Amino acid sequence: MNMRGFIQILTRDLKVALRRWSELCNPLIFFLIVASLFPLAISPEASDLKEVGTGVLWISALLSSLLALDGLFRDDAEDGSMEQLVLSPVPLTIIIAAKILAHWLITGLPLVVIAPVIALSYYMPVDALTTLILALILATPTLSVLGAIGAALTVGLRRGGPIVGLLVLPLTGPVLIFGTLATDLAVQGESAAGPLYLLGALLALAVVLGPLATSAAVRVSLE
Amino acid sequence: MEFLRMGGYGTYVWSAYGITLVILVVNIWWTYRFYRKSRETLGEISGNFSKHQPTVRKIS
Amino acid sequence: MNLRWFYKLASPPYFYRLAGTLGPWLGGLSIALIVAGAYGGLVLAPPDYLQGDGFRMIYVHVPSAYLGMMAYVVMATAAAIGFIWRIKLAHAVAVSAAPLGASFTFLGLVTGAIWGKPMWGTFWQWSDARLVFFLVLFFLYMGYLALREVTEDRDKADRLSAVLAVVGVINIPIIHYSVEWWTTLHQGPTITRLDGPSITMDMLAPLLVMIAGFSVFFVWLLFVRLQGEILVREQKSRWTQELMQRGRV
């Protein structure tokens, strides 16, 4: 019953999102734009870009996932379906988990696909790309979960929008640290197994605890 | 004098202790100011109510 | 188990009176402890064989950092209690602890930077995990206060910020264990080790006194701020009206 509810919410959110193509692209375009601005601001020299590439990539991904957060709960909150979901026999935690998964598939996964292209433009060695992709696949869902907590806390607030970043970004520290560590190790040709395992652990932790915190926040927001 | 020099680290040690003192004092000030303001606001509100004469009840 | 004392404690008028009585004593005690600790740290403690007199900054840095973290634990625990059992006073404790905790964290960061400059050669070190996560702690406080600021309804603010506080509490053990998990500029634990402190008593004593002094200081101001907070929250209640008419204490 729960599994069915999960799949239903997942497919519903995906369908709704896919209807609005342009909105889907926003985080992706943002990612590309931010990553493109850095060479203009820092330096287009290959040697400089190689040095900052890892950081730029991860920060851009982080900021893009932050940008995408607004769409997670806003529509449902506005048209009243959020209250319906809260009242549903399917546990809110499961519903939220499905929503976060849908959100990641739409906003996080495209980042993972585009990232290698950007990485190459920053002269990242091709051998490092697999690790980069793997690290992003582990990290971006965690970022989505953390973002969901922030979105849920602010969805009911009139002036809540601007502070989502303030709430979410401090929590993303460890993800950023291990993600960039993994990428840097791969660039140097060494094994990134350690940080990758840690990213996996963080993901597991986030997936288990995140929806719980998010549903608590959603309930309060709807009061 | 040696006390103030702190073996050469004087500037650092005294800056650290100084900022600590400042922060502690500022906190004391802020906190009592908040308390005072709360009492004032309450005073205004209960001033409005003093027209009524509520039955005095013991606060246990 | 007789929990009556707990329920009494959760009653705002009772707690208000308790805080009012204890407040000045806590204030006096904390100031005495801090003065004693500072004297001990600046005068009595012998100079360190490595850092000379510079190490004396430990007596303001460590207590500040410790309180910054302890205040967060108090805040998160109180918020959780308020959220789960719907005790208004617990939420009042959380919101009162926040500005104090933020101040101590700020102080910890600044005193740490001042101490770092002569000893490590730099005000800041991004590669030091403990520094970074302690900075994150400061951001968590700011986020908590910001969230309360933009939430218009107080009960909603209480409950939303409670979720945020609890989510962020994971940062505390991260800070504590960061020196074990990563090699950092910070040394490993010197006090909270299983086989006893690795620092001599004549250096340790003032530190413990300072930590105690800061802790009592925190409780003191927490109580005073709580009194103000209670008055604000219970403005419309009869007991506050009556206290007002009898001339405040």
Account of the protein in words:
The complex is a heterotrimer of chains A (223), B (60) and C (249). Chain A is mostly helical. Chain A has helices spanning 2-19, 21-41, 46-68, 70-79, 81-87, 92-121, 129-154, 164-168, 173-187, 193-222. By secondary structure, chain B is mainly α. Chain B has one domain (2-43). Chain B has 2 helices and no strands. Chain B starts with a helix and ends in an 11-residue tail after the last helix. Chain C is globular and about 60 Å long. Chain C starts with a helix and ends with a helix. Chains in contact: A-C, B-C.
What pattern of helices and strands is seen along the backbone of chain C?
HHHHHHHHH
Number of helices of chain C: 9
Largest sheet of chain A: none
Q: Share of helix among residues of chain C?
A: over 70%
Poorly predicted residue ranges of chain C: none
Q: What do the pLDDT scores of chain A average to?
A: 90
Give a short overview.
With 223 residues, chain A is mainly alpha-helical. Chain A is 83% helix and 0% strand.
